[in-house]
Automatic annotation (TrEMBL), chains A, B:
Keywords: FAD, Fatty acid metabolism, Flavoprotein, Lipid metabolism, Oxidoreductase. Belongs to the acyl-CoA oxidase family. GO terms for biological process: fatty acid beta-oxidation using acyl-CoA oxidase; lipid homeostasis. GO terms for molecular function: acyl-CoA oxidase activity; FAD binding; fatty acid binding. This is Acyl-coenzyme A oxidase. Pfam families: ACOX, ACOX_C_alpha1. GO terms for cellular component: peroxisome. The keyword Ribosomal protein does not apply.
Length: 642, 642
């Protein structure tokens, strides 16, 4: 081995490469303006092995019946100059101009919505019924987010929050009045919370103090004309709990209404296409009919009418339908991951850097094992999480009063988990906290699991639902000496994930009951048991995702596609076992086995390497939504394309 | 325990809180415009326990002799309207206007530099000698970055890259000519790399091909007038390796010079105050004297003159002085962490959310154990890494030819490590990759350690330098049953960090030699051993940081300040042992002991909790550089301050 400084070695080696690079193009000095392309771009399609599976079938596993609406939305965006198409390196790409000011980004976002509306993209938003209608709405909302997170959020606030409140909390009189103008954006909606007073026959909405102002309301600063206000409803001095009301905040010309004050939240670190604002109400009067009366109403003579006696239960009934927010966050975080990985992997298949030995050709980035390790596990996670988010959408659209808790727990699990792939980039960063801070969501999952477990125990019945049936069986046994082939079996993968969830749940139960024995309140107990709660929440999420992956695999006939899916599933489970310290911490993995797992990660990387391009193509993101660096970046960077 | 849905419980509980909150302010409905402050801001200074140590002394441990220049720079910035002072919640804050376009941000950055120059801030940049001069330059550059990373980088490119190249690679003729106009910004410098041809008596700089264009050159797009070009030097057909030349690229009026083409890199995800550009040279002629001739020169009649025969060694000699980049990145990442933590901790000491039990007062965020866990370990890391970056600065300013390798390895370790605190925020994100990708830096450290170890073995001598002397002693023994008090001893903390470094080094040596036995090239071997190399690089960095922390503690007399430092050091080591799976993976920690470590993290959080405000105050960031949310956010958000 070398005894001299490796730093110097590295510098020297680099110099040799540079020198050789230049000597290969020994152009006579008088002819130096000649711009010979030193580095040629070669499309990876020419050099990569052909996929031995059908990429269309793989994409179908990801996008299912929504493929047509997804591709239709992509095409609408590519075809309009509003989406800033620009030609680079012989291809056309679309992306927002982030150099625009906040004001310009907001205006462009609104114009893009107007264009999509004119193209009929939103026709039938409220009339499409059943599972197909729900899936169509999700697909539409997720696809616009591929272009720009602002566009997705602005549409989401309008259709899912405002539109969802009208749909689920209102009744026929509201549907008849508001669905059409909402679909056509004649009214532009937002959602907020405020306080109500009903001393007269009208509703009067007020903001009693500074800390009751409505903050970060999407759409409030510029474009919204109407809002759904959540407020305490007081009638004859009795507080009936939180209800929802429609209030107009701007007239058709965009002027702020009397008795309403609005301030702009201003520039943000990202999402500047969304005009967040703050609202104060000063005794704003609204007609009695503007109460969204799905669970309670007020008669003309001021009687409060409801079938649900308990005000807290009424509030809970209101909020339940609004979990769709977490569903869309989970799903669109996958699109962010797909775009990022498609760009990074395509580039790493066309960019070479340094030779392993002097005078050998330079090496493709993706042929470096350390680079494989950084990208290929993320690709496996993206597939696994996409399958899981499809499952979440399915249980959401088929929800029943009995399953709403499952939807809540699963959406919390996936919303928190999936954002780990989305990273902390500025446009996307808010996903970590809105619709529930991810750390808190993990604790919520654990509380729900604890409640399920204890309830079953109390009833002396097996645990049911949330995929927890494995708790009724004996604990799985992990082989004392793992091998590469064991690591790739469905049996082992399921066993170790179930073992972890089971053991952490038992530990959590024990820890909570120890605190209870000391007479502590349950609220206090949950604040001090966050360590186990977060581990358990993650264990639940990972096991759930593995299960949905296996469900997808089961639909694929034996053959090369099933094989590559198996490889991806093994990568997904193996990388989690390597990365999450809980497997070692709680003893599910011995240190010997941990070493086997680490080796397997490298091995899986090298085996997935040949499929990288096909797996990325199967993601179904049109080239135009990627970036020049994913294609001919030599041309795209040349002087002639400046 | 509860058997009903915890979701519903949570919703109900929240409703109760909201209801109580509103009922506490039961204002008559006719008087609803009255804006009673429901939530009062109470400065944490009034409620938090007084520090039982001297915060000035603690700050002195962080900023040492540089306190005066740091505070002077802060004051210069606070006093000028160019730094956008705005009053919020009764205090004045300065921060860039990120809603400005790229063009506006660039112009503002340049204006801020002009203002600081007019105020004499840079006077003596080149003339201040010795250790004090170097530390003064570092302090100055780091402090402007507290305001804005663009300002720091733009100054760094000018003074450290351009100015550093003139200083270290040039000789008296260049110093006499360029120091003064650089200090006064009459010339505005950048650094790049290109190719040289010397067929005539002049130097002719050319860009032979598209891929040889100079990319991402800070300052090139708008403001730079001169650049240092790195190029292969060819004389009489012989390639003499890479040399550095001064080239003018714009005239005094800002027009691009003939034979130079420049393109703008455009808008970036952050750092838009820095005007990055791309440069092509078309047979640009420059005077012979513009060669920076510290190690080699060319005579008027075209003879190449040098004392260093080997061209690669000449190149390495050129580059060695430029490691200051990593030093400043390591140090200014600490400032980013300080600002972020000061804001987050101050806010968490003034913001309450939910009661533990109904009808109890709401709880301060920092009194939630899970919130302590998220902030207080970062505070301990920030202190530890600040001490370590001061150490790095010290060995940099006292560098000798013999110690330059140590500086390189230590700066790689800290540059890569410290950015973990800085997170992936858009303005700061580039720090992860520029001046060396952090993953690659970890591998470089391991290669250097391997070389040291093998060289000592070959010479049959003890290992010396880089703090590796512990390798000559027997392996430390970790107690089989850890306790809270053991975990807090210097002995244990040092032992487990040394054990990890030692064992990983031995494993790395073994893995590399196994590959060698198979006849693989060393370049290939380093590409496949990245897993151990990255673990080892981190082990080295962590042990180094612990050592500098202990060095600082040793200077403090017994008393409350030393006690709180000890608590912070224990938090720093304990959190690393909890977070880095390598302690379990390689068996330095049993699963039983891992459980003790986890408990200790919670315990340390609660013990550090009372010092949070004092520790944050001791960071020495002026209030104006924090944010409204760190102070009276109720006032700052009120309608009257819109």
């Amino acid at each position: 081995m070398e005894s001299s400084s490796s730093t110097m070695d590295r510098v020297n080696f680099r110099t040799q490469i540079l020198t050789r690079h230049l000597q290969n193009h020994h152009i006579p000095p008088t002819d130096l303006i000649h711009t010979a392309p030193c580095v040629n771009y070669s499309p990876p399609e020419l050099s990569e092995p052909l996929a031995n599976f059908d990429t269309k079938s793989l994409r179908k596993l990801l996008d299912g019946k929504s493929i047509d609406v997804i591709d239709h939305m992509f095409n609408l965006m590519i075809q309009s100059n509003l989406f800033c198409p620009r030609e680079r390196g012989g291809k056309v790409f679309v992306s927002p101009d982030f150099n625009q000011s906040m004001e310009q980004q907001r205006e462009m976002t609104m114009k893009r919505i107007d264009y999509l509306r004119e193209q009929g993209a939103f026709d039938g938003w409220f009339s499409r019924k059943g599972d197909d209608g729900e899936l169509w709405r999700f697909a539409l909302a997720e696809t616009v987010s591929v272009f720009d997170h602002s566009l997705g959020i602005k549409l989401g606030v309008h259709f899912f929050l405002w539109g969802g409140a009208i749909r689920f909390m209102g009744t026929k009189r509201h549907h008849d009045k508001w669905f059409k103008p909402t679909e056509t954006f004649e009214v532009r909606g937002i959602e907020t919370v405020t306080r109500y007073d009903a001393r007269t026959e009208e509703f009067i909405i007020s903001t009693p103090c500074e800390s009751a102002q409505k903050y970060w309301i999407g759409g409030a600063a510029n474009h919204a004309t109407h809002t759904v206000v959540f407020s305490q409803l007081e009638i004859n001095g009795v507080n009936e709990g939180v209800h929802a009301f429609i209030a107009q905040i701007r007239d058709a010309d965009g002027n702020i209404c009397p008795n309403v004050r609005i301030a702009d939240c201003g520039h943000k670190i990202g999402l500047n296409g969304v005009d967040n604002g703050r609202i104060w109400f000063d005794n704003l009067r609204i007609p009695r009919e503007n109460l969204l009366n799905s669970v309670a109403d007020v008669s003309p003579d001021g009687q409060y009418l409801t079938a649900i006696k308990d005000p807290d239960q009424r509030f809970a009934a209101f909020l339940a339908p609004l979990t769709s927010g977490r569903v869309t966050i989970a799903a669109s975080s996958m699109n962010t991951a797909k775009v990022g990985l498609a760009i990074a992997i395509r580039y790493s298949l066309s960019r070479r850097a340094f030779s392993i030995r002097p005078n050998e050709p330079e090496v493709l980035l993706l042929d470096y094992p350390s680079h494989q390790r950084r990208l290929l596990p993320l690709l496996a996670k993206t597939y696994a999480l996409s399958f899981a988010s499809n499952y979440l959408k399915m249980i959401y659209v088929k929800r029943t009063p009995a399953s709403i808790k499952t939807v809540h727990v699963v959406s919390s699990a996936l919303k928190a988990t999936e954002n780990h792939v989305g990273h902390l980039k500025s446009e996307y960063d808010v996903q970590l906290t809105f619709e529930g801070d991810n750390n808190v969501l993990m604790q919520q999952i654990s509380k729900a699991l604890l409640a399920e477990f204890l309830a079953a125990k109390k009833r002396n019945k097996p645990v049911r639902g949330l995929g927890l049936e494995h708790l009724n069986k004996p604990a799985p046994i992990i082989p004392s000496q793992l091998t590469s082939s064991t690591l790739r079996t469905t049996q082992f993968q399921t066993d170790i994930f179930c073992l972890r969830e089971r053991d952490l749940l038992h530990r959590f139960v024990k820890e909570v009951s120890e605190h209870q024995a000391l007479g502590e309140s349950k609220e206090h107990i949950f604040t001090v048991t966050y360590q186990l709660a977060e581990d358990l929440g993650r264990a639940f999420s990972d096991r759930l995702i593995l299960q949905t992956f296996l469900d997808v695999e089961a639909t694929v006939p034996a053959g090369s596609l099933k094989d590559v899916l198996g490889l991806m599933r093994s990568m997904y489970t193996t990388i989690l076992i390597e990365e999450d310290a809980s497997f070692l911490r709680y003893g599910y993995l011995s240190t010997d086995n941990a070493a086997v797992v680490r080796k397997e990660v490298m091995k899986l990387c090298s085996e997935l390497r040949p499929y990288a391009l096909s797996l990325v193509s199967s993601l179904g993101i049109p080239d135009a939504f990627l970036a020049p660096i994913a294609f001919n970046w030599v041309d795209a960077n040349s002087w002639s394309s400046v």
